[in-house]
Amino acid sequence: MKLGLLTAAFPSLSLAEVADWAAANGFEALEIASWPSAGAERRRYAGVCHVDVGALDVRAVREVLDSRGLTISSLAYYPNPLDPDPAVRAHAQAHLRKVIEAAARLEVNLVGTFIGRDQNKPLEPAFADVLESWPPLVKFAADHGVRIAIENCPMIFTDDEWPGGRNLAYSPALWRRLFEAMPGETLGLNLDPSHLVWQFIDILRVVRDFGSRIYHVHAKDLEINRDGLYENGVMSVGMGWQVPRMPGLGEVPWNRFIAGLIAAGYDGVVSVEHEDRAFEGDVELVKRGFLLARNTLRPLLV
Amino acid sequence: MKLGLLTAAFPSLSLAEVADWAAANGFEALEIASWPSAGAERRRYAGVCHVDVGALDVRAVREVLDSRGLTISSLAYYPNPLDPDPAVRAHAQAHLRKVIEAAARLEVNLVGTFIGRDQNKPLEPAFADVLESWPPLVKFAADHGVRIAIENCPMIFTDDEWPGGRNLAYSPALWRRLFEAMPGETLGLNLDPSHLVWQFIDILRVVRDFGSRIYHVHAKDLEINRDGLYENGVMSVGMGWQVPRMPGLGEVPWNRFIAGLIAAGYDGVVSVEHEDRAFEGDVELVKRGFLLARNTLRPLLV
Amino acid sequence: MKLGLLTAAFPSLSLAEVADWAAANGFEALEIASWPSAGAERRRYAGVCHVDVGALDVRAVREVLDSRGLTISSLAYYPNPLDPDPAVRAHAQAHLRKVIEAAARLEVNLVGTFIGRDQNKPLEPAFADVLESWPPLVKFAADHGVRIAIENCPMIFTDDEWPGGRNLAYSPALWRRLFEAMPGETLGLNLDPSHLVWQFIDILRVVRDFGSRIYHVHAKDLEINRDGLYENGVMSVGMGWQVPRMPGLGEVPWNRFIAGLIAAGYDGVVSVEHEDRAFEGDVELVKRGFLLARNTLRPLLV
Amino acid sequence: MKLGLLTAAFPSLSLAEVADWAAANGFEALEIASWPSAGAERRRYAGVCHVDVGALDVRAVREVLDSRGLTISSLAYYPNPLDPDPAVRAHAQAHLRKVIEAAARLEVNLVGTFIGRDQNKPLEPAFADVLESWPPLVKFAADHGVRIAIENCPMIFTDDEWPGGRNLAYSPALWRRLFEAMPGETLGLNLDPSHLVWQFIDILRVVRDFGSRIYHVHAKDLEINRDGLYENGVMSVGMGWQVPRMPGLGEVPWNRFIAGLIAAGYDGVVSVEHEDRAFEGDVELVKRGFLLARNTLRPLLV
Amino acid sequence: MKLGLLTAAFPSLSLAEVADWAAANGFEALEIASWPSAGAERRRYAGVCHVDVGALDVRAVREVLDSRGLTISSLAYYPNPLDPDPAVRAHAQAHLRKVIEAAARLEVNLVGTFIGRDQNKPLEPAFADVLESWPPLVKFAADHGVRIAIENCPMIFTDDEWPGGRNLAYSPALWRRLFEAMPGETLGLNLDPSHLVWQFIDILRVVRDFGSRIYHVHAKDLEINRDGLYENGVMSVGMGWQVPRMPGLGEVPWNRFIAGLIAAGYDGVVSVEHEDRAFEGDVELVKRGFLLARNTLRPLLV
Amino acid sequence: MKLGLLTAAFPSLSLAEVADWAAANGFEALEIASWPSAGAERRRYAGVCHVDVGALDVRAVREVLDSRGLTISSLAYYPNPLDPDPAVRAHAQAHLRKVIEAAARLEVNLVGTFIGRDQNKPLEPAFADVLESWPPLVKFAADHGVRIAIENCPMIFTDDEWPGGRNLAYSPALWRRLFEAMPGETLGLNLDPSHLVWQFIDILRVVRDFGSRIYHVHAKDLEINRDGLYENGVMSVGMGWQVPRMPGLGEVPWNRFIAGLIAAGYDGVVSVEHEDRAFEGDVELVKRGFLLARNTLRPLLV
Predict the structure, then answer these.
(1) Strands D269-272 and E187-191
(2) Taking the model in full, what pTM does it have?
(3) Model ipTM?
(4) What are the phi and psi torsion angles at E269 (to 5°)?
(5) What's residue D41's pLDDT?
(6) Residues E248, F255: C-beta atoms closer than 8 Å
(7) Looking at beta carbons, which residues of chain C come within 8 Å of B272?
């Protein structure tokens, strides 16, 4: 396994600047934020464009990476491809296709994204949406030789995302249904263990049960605010007691998690996703957050 | 404390028949189902009418109870008083007022119900609904010398109740806000510990923190299906892993719970609410379920 | 479910005497010890003959039970039908057939026994023995309309039973193989949760996974001597730290276990098996042990 | 084992009245409060005189007990025999001798008391006091054929008892030293498991390690107020978070505790000591507390 | 946050020698032992003088630090300012004032000390002492622009410190009273999580509840000797089962603790306090202890 | 303590090659595989010969080590010296004597081996074998000034080793008997904590109880496959749920384990034993496994 990072946490830096810092600080791979270069959504932790897939200069991108000894773990574009607004939905899917094409041209062959969800629909009609929209996307990716790693985030942290969250693919039962409905090797997981902590889902069993479907790994941690849990309970879903932290500061058992990945034969990138508010605000703080993550994970990634 | 039961589990028996059986089997109080005699909702565990508050014969009801040495713990009517359909909402509130009047006339002075919720609204607008509809209801009850015990059930067990559930009053944070918004002694809790189990909310702390607000107690247990929790996680809220059981068959620590109630000065009724599917189907099975509950609770209620 | 007891703990009493005491003390069923009337093995807790299947007087036996309002839960004969000594093995199988015939004639239709094991063979050759010897026995039982409940005891408590124990059917993996190898409804489990405690096997999951195969239940508890476990570890298998106790005195969670049985649809007998050395030595002590078990289980069996 | 109660919780009733109620409610033995009939200390739960050892009428006392089928488990006198005030100390020891004599004359042969402590002395000088004062008391008891059961209460619940508490015999290390310093069979424990809960001492290990020294058992439970523990920590010793409760309402594992006693061969009385403030104030409440304790313990004492 | 160390563990080295070693081994700050240069107490871990506040050469001290790129986290002087001996008490307070003055002159502006306690007084009179002696000290510090960080050690490890310990400020309840009695920003905590382990006080809740009052942090770990706890129980307070260890060798969850500090906005020094007897005896061993602490903490302090 | 490794994981490299790599990667000591140079057993992880004790060139071996700044922690030869086949047994003991002589000549003075066992014999006769064979071996070692460190592995991972395993010295009870039977300082433990995990034996208590007998330490970890444990239970001994892992990937609490060793005064080598199948197959993978182990242990070994 290699240690990487998701570039979205550095919206003010160029890809070359991110690559400079990452390579100098022990990271070996970048997961490159690939939102549209203009008009992207303004959601927290999103909308960053470190590779403009609409005007892709393959050679320039590869030069940035190669010259620093870095690889690209995947292109990252996490919109809601099933947004209730048809225009937003269409735009997201169209851009997702561009990202897939870019991944093929860059020979990365892996795109990280969300399955999305019309947050206003209950589970079954929301799932029906998936079955309508996603098979063509999967076929498109397969035709380009690109695999898609779906992140398992419920995408519900604020009232704006209530009630269903903007990403349906958050539980073992749903993954199983997705993989049955869209067989083949194209669709897999971008597994982020932090989302399992707040769902009270056994992380190690997920790694055992879905090992061969893990195409990418997000390293993020989660602290449960126990007073918040007492006050609000699990009915409040993602709001009130789930605190994203840098890896090593929360409840993910990183040694056992990495041990499980090794046993499952995973040999890809562990990509640090930075959403810890204690390490935000200026670039130096963001970097310190990444360093802490590196210090946690580096000893386990030999 | 006394041991009681909620009569709604015996829809096919008359009040007198329920009273006969209860008194003969060690119960001391009835929580009488008071849905409308006609046209009531057909929700599972609801719609039962053991006292017709539209045509109340106070003397007859009291005679049924007194002759068997039983008391009434409260009148029970659990609709959604904030139903999104204005007609349903108006009907529920109108009937609730009749139940309150009946409780006053019967000198029971306690009504158990739900705060309700427009299940389609997020928390804050749903809470605004409460603040609009409930103060007049609380005043009506206070004017009749009747207290209202709100059950803490999230009322979300099926897709029909998705996404918000039909009862907003499910967490300490929300109870606190409710009691602050509607001060006075009229509003309190009908505390059912089973709902706290599946919300991962500390039952004993609830008893300590809200002791003086506990006006009635529902004895119901909950078994967590651990495989279901793994498959679905807490995002699935009330669906997929929460199994209502008779008291003694689940994860509620009854001795510590009753100990807390004693310490909090609660001296009302512990009323068994029967929603265990393993003891349903015919009246004999239902009775066996109540007997198991009695065997669990009787030794603790001296 | 009914509460019963295994009569083998009363070797000095007649069946009528056992029935007298059991009926007078809240038991509803007997699991009748059916070892040969003469020449039986002298193993602790074995060799007792309360029904002489070699000279069966059906009417007399039924009269003893019926007159006291008791039923027979099963006939009990727990030898090693796969004893390494061919003579012992043949004798055990021959007598087992007689017990099966008796169960049919008595209309009990259930026999509790061990699958047995040549204790000196490793797992696979020992399992091969089972596949050779048991199909004819199963067919014999099926032909008589009798089901066989295999107890899940590893039968290794002393050096005499070392190294393999005298009963192969002790784990979920082995039960699964047995039921696959001998399909049909004849073979099931006589589930004793105490043996799962010392094997560190999740009791509640066993009930969920094998619910329909539970034909009979032994109520016995187990205390783990933690100092003994430290000294010897699990390599010492059944020797050194497993202390059989009356139900309620050990680590079996009886409420959750019975709750699981109810949910699984089990409606047979929970039969107390008495192997608690603290309640042995004279008949009065033995009876006190049974009373303690009754006090633990009776409230849960409604 | 038999179920008994300590009569001190009924200061306003006569011995005969206590005996009436106890016998009618399933108790089999009394631990009789034997403080001086006049001038006794006014400590909470102390100072009660149900047998006036200064004017003992053996026949009358036995008649009260025998006529109701009760036995005496021990005479109870729990002063501080090592009080820093020499007069108080002398008086306590003098009265203790009278209680011993009374126990001999009543053929009870067991006295429950405290070892006491000069609360102002650190451990070693306090222990030296014990070695000076107690050997003659032990000899006196032995000469009368009476055994002494020392309760393991630290006797520190208020500032008045600060800093050392008024009873030194509260831990395994101290019991061991006491029994080594005063060998023979006269001195043993009146084991109250509730005091071990708040000392975080393993109850079951105590039963295993000191089984033969358990001469009497107090059944009392303890609830740990977890908020109080957070606020004050264990430096506050007995003040701020230890809540005495009736057996069954706290953290003592009664089934495992009784199981341990059975295995240790204890066959004496389990005597309910009532110090639960939720069941005090009038005699009816006190009785309800005892009934709850009885309901908890009765099923385990066969 | 920066990594520092308390120089008191190097009594035989000069400040410059300590600074040399610390800077060369990854430490960024020193907490300088500031006991009187002569006549200081001879308590273990105390009495060391690395800055002679009675003859302070500001420029020389700063030169030692600056030249090695180190900062001073605080001046450390941990006497008992409320010693029962008036002379000792007066001397301690007088020297404390000198240390405060020195901290101001050195522009460190932080002094770490104990609140102290007359160990022979119960809590309330001991607290009254605090209220009498401390307001002038707090005012003195405030006048000099210096904050005081009170360490939360109960200071009771031997009979000499029995019964009350020599530092009253050991629990949340007491800190809360102290901060209410002496409002303003002068007084805060020098939080040492190891003392919370042996008081069974939730470390993470302390960080949440008192975050803004944490002015300095001591990194020390604690191992609970479970056999010692069984033998002695918590009545023995600090004696018999609490083993100070280097950070990483005990029960403090360092990642969660540091995570809490980050979330609380703490950005000061984490100063390793060395009291691990397994790493004492010669300077090399002491250094190895510090290195182990550094290896534990360094990855978390970015 | 020093960090070392057991060379047996590198059968294809020469001692010099192993030493090169170890020294360059932070290891300080080698535990040198000393099986016979020819005809050695072909068991997994065995049979490697990095020092040919039959043709020992002391100077050459020392040169390899000294030139790279490495020490030898012990010579490693783990056969079954009590093999049921007399020829195999004799050969093993003969070679063990040669290894002992070599250890003396190399001035290592420590040999790691198994006590062995005739796996077909029950405990007591197997123990009798030990008492017959081992005293002369111990005497031989003592005469050469060499200590013997017995590894605590039960040596039962396959049916071939069933039923007793090939090494009797796996539990505290057995070590105690061994040390009593063969007093003196020659015999001690080569403690591998991973074997204690799967025996459910408290690792930290072992370190406390046997500290002075720990002559060498193997660093290996163990993951318990919880599904495998459910399926097979502990009756399956070493087969079906115990997964050897590199240190840091399993359930051994390395910080507490090393803390215990430090407190016990152990100052020898912690030697990584590599049996993690996820890091096998080619030399690079094997090295990565060792690096992960180093990263786990290095920070704790100062």
Answers:
(1) unpaired
(2) 0.93
(3) 0.91
(4) -105, 145
(5) 62
(6) yes
(7) none
